[in-house]
Structure formats: structure tokens, C-alpha cells
Amino acid sequence: MPEGPEVEIVRLGLLSLKHQIIDDIKIANHPKYTSQRKRFEYLIGSEINDVARRGKFLIFNFKRGKETITALNHLGMTGVWHIYTDKKWGDIKSPFEKFKHYKLYFHFESGLHVLFINVRTFGKFEIMSMEEIEDQPSIKKLGPDILSVPFESKSFLIQMKRRKLEVGKALLNYSVIAGCGNIYKSEALFNSHINPFTRIPKLTDNEINRLGIELNKVAIEALNSGGSTLKDYTQVDGYAGLMQNKFNVYGLAGEPCSRCGTIIEKRDQGGRTSFWCPNCQVIKM
Ligand SMILES: [Zn+2]
């Protein structure tokens, strides 16, 4: 599942569509999308004005004359955006068959072809007003962003100290930190020498502050490495990220720790798998 850095990379790729005018749209035969058919068709003739990010959400801003139209997009588990030049698109044999899991297709006056592909349909692209977007609980309650510069340490400390649960669970809550998922959670806990099963009240303010800085650092490193490609995620030009080659614990259970040689462990934590080094990350009881 794409985390904040991957979504940010997708956003930067989509910004290349700024000021381009949509002249055709195709919608997949899925109720999530066909139910908005009229709203989508209304986008024909509009231009992309901006694409913003909030946590793992993208907010599209279209301009149609003097009118502004906004849409909320979430990639879900497997969502990707692809951009093709007319020539590259022409080289693909029956593209709509090849990308049969596409949900939206935009054609631009400039000749570009853009697809939102979502194999499992957990993602979404919904046309709604900015007020409606701001009113979504998953937007309204977003905590400090994992990529914020400088990192919003104060707000992170306040959010963490409100909770008594295990730190590995808290970091997956978007009100505690926005844009964090299972990968960067595991890596930042390793870098901070904190065991994912330690409960927040056992951590000192200094440890929480250090953890916030490490989350921010690992996310920025991921952004600069093109993100982590495990399954479906790619950049808009189809290239894979490289961050997966830099993991210290995530997906490495049974391997020796890069720091001390102890075997990395994994265990289920609230339905997600946590990875840690039992020597570098001793649990605080
Ligand atoms: Zn270790």
C-alpha cells in the first residue's frame, strides 16, 4: 500500500499535467465510477489547475472557465496513475484490454493519455466540493504530516501522549501521524531503537521526539529514492522506486540485523505485521 512518500511522488508526476485541457474521458464499468458519470463528463473542457496532497490523499483541482471543480483521490492498496505520450500509447496493443483494471481514463488536448488503474477497487476518485473534502473525517482528523518540513514535532508529541496503546499500532493512526504506513513505521522504530510493542506511556518525551524525527527522515529518504516498490506501486512513468533496497527490518524476518547480527523477528500487531530486532529494540515493560 502506498504511504505518504509514494503518494507524494505520484503527485509530483501528475503536476506535469498542470494547465492541460481534458478533451475526453472514459469511465470503468464499476458503480463507484458510473454513479458519477455526469460529473466526470462535466470535466471535459476543463484543465488541471493543481494537485495537492493531504496524508495519503490527493486533491485534484480543475478549472472550467471561472468555475473550480475539486476531486478527492485515494490510491487504496494498489492504485497507480500512468501517463503516456501519444506515441507510447500507440505502441501498446489494445491498451484498454491491457489495462483492464483502469477506473478512469483522461485524454488531453496535448495528446497525453492518463490512466487511473486500481486492480482491487479500494481506491477512489470522487468529485466533491472543497467543503465536502474538508469535512471528511479522514481529512479533518489528519495529524502532522510525515513529510512536513520542518517536522511538526510538537503536534506529534501531543497526539502520541494522548494514547496509551502500543507504539506500533499508534503510528498507523492517521490522527497521530499522516502518511505513515507499515513500512516506514517499522523502519523508523528500528532507527529509534524502540520496540513496536512498547506502550506509549513507557516512552520518554525525548524518545517520542527522536521517533518523530526518524519517521520524517525515513519518509524524506523514501521520497528521494522514488518510493518503495513491493507490488503495484510505480511512478507515473511506470518506473519502480528503490527504497525497498534500503530496508533494515521491513520484510526481513529471519535475516541478521544490519547493526548487530541478531535475527530480525516479525509478529502480527493489530492485523498488520511488525518487524524488529530483539537486541536493538528491547521492549520497555
Ligand atoms: Zn540489531
What would your notes on this structure say?
The longest helix is centred in the last third of the chain and has 20 residues, at 205-224. It contains 11 helices and 10 strands. The model has no long low-confidence stretch (mean pLDDT 95). The chain is globular and about 60 Å long. The strands form 3 sheets. A 4-stranded antiparallel β-sheet has the order 1-6-7-5. The protein has a 4-stranded antiparallel β-sheet with strand order 2-3-4-8, with helices on one face. 29% of the residues lie in helices and 21% in strands. It has helices at residues 4-14, 31-34, 37-41, 86-91, 95-98, 130-134, 137-140, 153-161, 167-170, 182-191, 205-224, and strands at 22-27, 47-54, 57-64, 67-74, 80-84, 102-108, 113-117, 124-127, 265-269, 272-276. A hairpin with a 2-residue loop joins strand 2 (47-54) and strand 3 (57-64). By secondary structure, it is of the alpha+beta class. The protein has 2 domains: 4-140, MutM-like, N-terminal (N-terminal domain of MutM-like DNA repair proteins), CATH 3.20.190.10; 153-276, Helicase, Ruva Protein, domain 3 (Orthogonal Bundle), CATH 1.10.8. The chain binds zinc ion. Zinc ion is lined by residues 257, 259-260, 262, 277, 279-280. The site of zinc ion has 7 residues, from loops.
Number of helices: 11
Count of β-strands: 10
Q: What oligomeric assembly is this protein in? A: single chain
The gross shape turns out to be globular
The CATH architecture of the largest domain can be given as: Alpha-Beta Barrel
User: How many separate domains?
Assistant: 2
Distance between the termini: 31 Å
Element-by-element helix/strand order: HEHHEEEEHHEEEHHHHHHEE
Q: Widest sheet: strand order?
A: 1-6-7-5
Bound molecules: zinc ion
CATH superfamily of the largest domain: MutM-like, N-terminal
| CATH class descriptor name of the largest domain | Alpha Beta
